[in-house]
## 1
Amino acid sequence: MVARIAIASDHAAIDLKAALAGWLRDEGYEVIDLGPVDPASVDYPDYGYKLARAVSEGRADRGVALCGSGIGISIAVNRNPAVRCALVAEPLSARLAREHNDANIIAMGARLVGEEMAKACVDAFLTTDFLGGRHQRRVDKLSHPALEEQPA
Amino acid sequence: MVARIAIASDHAAIDLKAALAGWLRDEGYEVIDLGPVDPASVDYPDYGYKLARAVSEGRADRGVALCGSGIGISIAVNRNPAVRCALVAEPLSARLAREHNDANIIAMGARLVGEEMAKACVDAFLTTDFLGGRHQRRVDKLSHPALEEQPA
């Protein structure tokens, strides 16, 4: 069951982060806000790594990653082989990320996606089940912990 | 100078891969097609890892990664800390991926993005320069080779 949602951003996305955190709490989820809390300039990799670790260590069931475009923080999060982060801008991708990729973190760009669209993406992400089957083998292949173990 | 473009996909994206490869050759680029070549079902992580390696080892200057949604292969590619892959569906994100993130691989979903939109994304990706400056420090932080070296 999805109960605890960790959320992190960079300075460009603190307003969207606050809006999503409040909405998720209203929806009954426990929200773990990993920052930042003020608009001072920060580096998105620091917050992406922190968020990935919260999910990979089981402190959160799912994660929401935000930056200006969503690109930088999605790259940072996916450096952690225990998580699977989908960068999305509309709910169909959020649904497919769950059905096919068992994504446990969703990334969005606060400068590109409006608040209501972001909520629709998070809603699809939180309420769609992984399909398993042939998709499981592929998801397993995303968990190779080291480059040396990846197929050439 | 960007001259050699590696391209890889899964079975869901072989038609878009062929279209982009032909167009890129017409535009004067050397295209390294890493497969697959027929529509038999394959696992996107295999092709994502292969593409990331081609770019990280310098056999290609840039990469194009395709699957049904673009999500799965973008996750696979970003497991390699020497590359930075942006999943995009429109050219603004492709431009920002270059300007802010020095992305060297672009991912797209063949079931979500039409051929002309995909070409516009690739064009922005290939013709936009990295801005450097404050963005360089953040890009450097994406290159941490091991989870142990990531900030907590």
Note: Chain A has one domain: 4-149.
## 2
Amino acid sequence: MGNAVRLGVAGLGTVGTGLIKIIEKHQSRIRSAAGGPVEVVAVCARDRSRDRGIDISGFRWFDDPIELAQDPEIDVFVELIGGEDGVTLDAVRQALAAGKHVVTANKALLARHGTELAKLAEEKAVGLGFEAAVAGGIPVIKAMRESFAGNEIKRVYGILNGTCNYILTKMEEEGRTFDDVLKEAQSAGYAEADPSFDIGGIDAAHKVALLASLAFGTEVSFDDVYIEGIENIELADLESAAELGFRIKLLGVAMKTDSGIEQRVHPAMVPLHSAIAEVGGVTNCVTVEGDFVGDVMLVGPGAGEGPTASSVVADIIDVVRGTVSAPFIRPASQLKPYKRALMRAHEGGYYVRVSLEDAPGAFAAVAKIMADEGVSLESIVQRRPQSALPGIDARDEAGGARQVVMITHPTYEKAMRSAIKAIESDPHVDKTPQMIRIEKL
Amino acid sequence: MGNAVRLGVAGLGTVGTGLIKIIEKHQSRIRSAAGGPVEVVAVCARDRSRDRGIDISGFRWFDDPIELAQDPEIDVFVELIGGEDGVTLDAVRQALAAGKHVVTANKALLARHGTELAKLAEEKAVGLGFEAAVAGGIPVIKAMRESFAGNEIKRVYGILNGTCNYILTKMEEEGRTFDDVLKEAQSAGYAEADPSFDIGGIDAAHKVALLASLAFGTEVSFDDVYIEGIENIELADLESAAELGFRIKLLGVAMKTDSGIEQRVHPAMVPLHSAIAEVGGVTNCVTVEGDFVGDVMLVGPGAGEGPTASSVVADIIDVVRGTVSAPFIRPASQLKPYKRALMRAHEGGYYVRVSLEDAPGAFAAVAKIMADEGVSLESIVQRRPQSALPGIDARDEAGGARQVVMITHPTYEKAMRSAIKAIESDPHVDKTPQMIRIEKL
């Protein structure tokens, strides 16, 4: 194995452990795909003695990932530590500077420092692979880099966070509240003790920032992602959505508009009878819309030991074969500055749920506000007092008030925000109206 | 453009025309991805003067694809003629023998001669790209070759023929018969005048043969594909399927079993609430099941000018970059002989619909036959006389007979075939029972 490509693996959590298992189990398969042997020679983690169910005694041990990154005896630095700054960033910088390929599953790191790291990789003519950073086992990065290279991409969107999708699926299927399902997900290990990163939409936003750069040839700009999480989604919304032929998903969307690029993460209505609506539980999906290829959707496990490690291996094979494209398709020096389309200029349909006092003129007041803002309504339904979902009475949640749900014709977010503000201060209205965007698919 | 990679395009139908449009529109995009300019220099088609909506006056014209294939002034031979033998096969052989890369969308050619052509390509160290041959714009070949290279594939399956999926979707949505929808599809151009190739399952079988080889490292063996088309699917089956929580799709499946490899194309029941069930109309999908990555589904347009040409361009970029893998992943000389698992040994659940005389003991006789064959039933429903679909009365189709639908527990095809034969000859039974396999997802 004198000519084996030598991997240094930093981080032996779920993904690192999975990687070592794949390389062990599929040695000959990987050798054949890579055109030569690939072996792990050195590892680094916090705790050397922890039982991971794999034998790491054959690998050189490093306490410091930065030392591992600079080790002259490795060819590829596999970063599976996590974290967007600090030692992780330093280690990746050092590895690239030392002329080593880097393969990482770290979306936060790349969302923050993607452009810089891509430039560094290109200066040194090494690969920077991050297939595992977006949607786990789904090969969307390679598809965008290579398969759709002959297309102008108009939009890329998907379900990019398994925790959120799991919670929304459970709420709808079992008629349970957000808090209830979240607690269960936490005790089952599907959600972190501090879940804000997932349910607040930040994790999905990291991925959107990477997809936007790949799609539009712009610098990675995480700070420009508009983010709303799923914390405010109520059962009443899931029920109303279903009645109106929709399902609610937390979507991450990157799209080109006349005024710039929209990067956004927010709950959105998708058609009930569509493949994306049936992507349930922790499963992820990404749809890429190209001008020639049309819409291609990729669906699969967005996280987990096997799927994520599978993508890491694919990247390793590519860097070994020398076939890695520029990290963000175009040379990093040619990435254009990101031009943000303001969210207020967003155009689309909206779902609005208002909790109204049961008094004459209450709805007329709301309707007038919408009309004054130039928003026209496609449909209006008063929710049935008895819930469509098991075990829930819509009146319980709203405290006896009428729930009126409106679907608007396409309009501007600016108008909607003004309307919502005005509706909220109307004396007939019980609480803050719910507003959910409808994603046109 | 002295160093441009020169394409010779044989065939200027839908895909060839689309290819020339993409190369014209996205010249700089393709140049950047390919690492240099790519240009069409010569073309070949049946009729030089036909208006294709593109200007071909700048390309050298060939009447004979074999001459084009051997032309010293081209680097890549793009075969978009179609046909599994004759001049197409000769042209591809000649192009490879002359050391030119070949990119093709021709599933029939590869299903018949894939192993031979892969060997020829490898002898000459040239690329043989056929992303466009399976599921049009869906990048499943690259995903299997590269993204899932670190996985043992257990099964690959999907909706591989848009015409069949369109017909089944329309039948169900509009409550119309097979013949009725087929006629409409033919006049709309979605189905050929002689539709047997599509609806008989042969087109899907070509794709299955290629997917099987990629998945299992075996020689391409089209003759070993078990094929059933959708000709015998009745509205009563679509209705019963929906009542039982299923939808009927024509699936192409390649899977490893204990006794060998199953390659099969047949109508199959899939769960009604699943993403694959919502893949409607002419859309295709392919699911790859890997031991580490899990199940990844790719959904998209399976045919058409833009999508197919997009995949052709992706292959061209790969051959230009020199990054094409072996056509069937392993070196062609190392592909194992195909070992067929007999269809009689197939294991799974079955849907059976029997048209029974309304007489005492009629169902008891059927039940006894099933029991005698060791087939146990998971559920039995007598179809409601009134159809669940609009405009159809189930009694019309069955001529007043009772329709009894059974879902079996997993069993062997051999037992089912014996049971069906025995049921068919029972005096209480009106006509040949319907048997549809349930695909376990």
Note: Residues 391-398 of chain B have pLDDT under 50 and may be disordered.
## 3
Amino acid sequence: MASPAKIGIVTVSDRASAGIYADEGGPAIVDYMTKALVSPWEAVSRIIPDEREGIARTLIELADAEGCCLIVTTGGTGPAPRDVTPEATEDVIDKPMPGFGELMRQVSLAKVPTAILSRQLAGIRGRTLIVNLPGRPRAIAECLDAVMPAIPYCIDLIEGPYLETDPAVVAAFRPGQKPKG
Amino acid sequence: MASPAKIGIVTVSDRASAGIYADEGGPAIVDYMTKALVSPWEAVSRIIPDEREGIARTLIELADAEGCCLIVTTGGTGPAPRDVTPEATEDVIDKPMPGFGELMRQVSLAKVPTAILSRQLAGIRGRTLIVNLPGRPRAIAECLDAVMPAIPYCIDLIEGPYLETDPAVVAAFRPGQKPKG
Amino acid sequence: MASPAKIGIVTVSDRASAGIYADEGGPAIVDYMTKALVSPWEAVSRIIPDEREGIARTLIELADAEGCCLIVTTGGTGPAPRDVTPEATEDVIDKPMPGFGELMRQVSLAKVPTAILSRQLAGIRGRTLIVNLPGRPRAIAECLDAVMPAIPYCIDLIEGPYLETDPAVVAAFRPGQKPKG
């Protein structure tokens, strides 16, 4: 039996990393993945401050040393001076995946006009897909609902583990085969 | 009482800057802001040719020396050889704000299929939000109707002045508080 | 009478270029253009492997030496390690045209959730518009249906030949004039 797929979950927040308040984004992602995935997986979690170099270093560690097939970040994607998660992500990816940010902004825009202020992006580093998510738990779930159906096939294409979802939660789509169910 | 918020309005046009025809884009933006904003503001206007370095210099001057919290440009965003406003904007911003261009193209696309030819972008330079608008007055208003609701909160986040809008014209949205009214 | 407009059609595929299977994307584009265009044109076709430098060289040759007003590529836009068509396109364009990729992903997304995995982009090199299309013939037609109405006017703006379409197939739009019919 294959070893479980590793998923990196990176909370980027000065205050959460300093213990000033509790990390809500990271646990929201763990909850989501627990419900969505039926194939074996394990979380590799980090809580780090809004520092471009430190974020980049963490993404590289989770991709290259830990071998995560997927890394999701939460926080640091707005326009404020300390928001540098997209820049750090850009620094470490080989290939941008512009469709993720476009779709996440589009679904958030149906809820709030300030969705256009989110600078979320995604990209590929080697065999790892990295996706920026927003900071608020409700917005995290909305964004994952939108992009998660495409993620297992994306990970197939970059030669990662075969992720299976619970079709009642996320209808993962793989072209050329019927949705799992 | 706070000094009025400065808004840079940059018309980029070889012909308007040479006096060959009247600038229509700049006055259309002034009219729009006059109707939309109820907090004190003043326009800092420029009319300049389609030259990448000159546009970049003007944006830097309005952001760094004049202290504008918002700069809007009009013109120079198409595919023609002289259209270089997005390149000049890219040259001076620290952070791209991809959601603005995506949304403006989307609303324009509901009107004309050539909306995809617009290369409008937006980004942050220090404490200044810079937004490219199209050249035609009608398209300017359509684009501002789409993005203006998010602009006051964006300027809050980059530590600029508190902009208040007339909710009958623009329903500015700030998360965590009810729309002003 | 003007010489026919040259349109570059570049199939990017390791297997098609090695003769392992037949190129389907290139002929699908030729068929589409044959139906869509009523003004004289000729195809300049290439089938090449998924190599970034070779793709870039081919795009330059078709733009600068062949004088194509439009180059469309098919294949190599996904997240897989060998998919480098967008990177090669980025290497040779002067100006990005982000609206093309955004719209193509949006129309494909109405069909399949994995449309966000497409990294298609477009841009201008001198007097040539370069547009990445997907690999599958059905997806090619969907994407061309979406972007083709804007292409003749784009080519006018970069001082290329006047392309006329069959309005029953593609309703080319030129601002300030009624659709041809």
Note: Residues 52-65 of chain A form the longest helix (14 residues).
## 4
Amino acid sequence: MSVLLEFSMTPLDKGESVSKYVSRSLDIIDQSGLPFSLNPMGTVIEGQWEEVMKVVKDCYDKMNSDCSRISCMIKIDARKGKDGRIKSKIQKIETILNKDLNK
Amino acid sequence: MSVLLEFSMTPLDKGESVSKYVSRSLDIIDQSGLPFSLNPMGTVIEGQWEEVMKVVKDCYDKMNSDCSRISCMIKIDARKGKDGRIKSKIQKIETILNKDLNK
Amino acid sequence: MSVLLEFSMTPLDKGESVSKYVSRSLDIIDQSGLPFSLNPMGTVIEGQWEEVMKVVKDCYDKMNSDCSRISCMIKIDARKGKDGRIKSKIQKIETILNKDLNK
Amino acid sequence: MSVLLEFSMTPLDKGESVSKYVSRSLDIIDQSGLPFSLNPMGTVIEGQWEEVMKVVKDCYDKMNSDCSRISCMIKIDARKGKDGRIKSKIQKIETILNKDLNK
């Protein structure tokens, strides 16, 4: 079962600008070697359950090292027999609409 | 760091009535021994990261055994030096408002 | 179509303790007159789309008055021909499992 | 207050393949004229609260016309004095890491 997982993780004790902490997570995600896609509200990664959850845990451990309250949202779409959906889900919608949706 | 985790997990290939599958998850949660609280939109459990994530994984493995597409939402609130928040968060709001909010 | 809506709304610029702001939202929710249920991770309300969204908007307007960054999560479950699900969804699971899940 | 809103909306009574319904929503979003960005797990739109919520409501009304159970997730990040964040949030992370994150 291939898993698409989107998540965002934010410290609540560091004020309203948190890009320093988000950047550290993105560095961990990038080094995981899993396919990922950053969007304005979170990051989508693709892999097996254990693989994608390990990345989230690594980001949590890092944030846990110097933050005292952490908020995290995770959204998962798991589907049997389908890989590469990090690209194909968008392409399928574009094909149906016959439109390029990310100009 | 104590973690409050709320999650809901739903098969997308079993039609609009999914209580059979939700019940199986609740049975797994109940048997985990962790404090939990069921609400109309999900279940909140409390524990360390590894503990609460193991419960979610166990529910996923069970659903994965006979469902071909699974959607899952997870919301996490982790806070240093605070245990028992599964009860105390609600009590704090009720104290501030001087009202019983779950009549 | 009856809507169950769970939401949580948090300022990001007020430090890690935000119960003052959450309490104000609960007061607005309570005064809306809609059925609601507070849990450790959010509040579930039931009504028509316009009704439940108005409550969320009222909470946002209040928080907007003195906060400069706001994070909000909304989860919706809408189902035709079913009212009173704020109570019946939990009861159905308890009936299937033949267990009281909120001891 | 400029709002970034990410949402996904799915019928639960149409089987595991729902791209037909997602496409209809994307068409509504595209015609709204608001800046948007499609990702593998949802769509991010930017505007004022009333503007972005109207788009979500229009998608709901369409799905409501022929679906009997609808699940919807909405995530909001509202911040004073900042527009154009649908592009700038990603750029800021890339600048901090000195890396192009969407190869």
Note: Residues 2-97 of chain C form a domain with the Alpha-Beta Plaits fold (CATH 3.30.70.930).
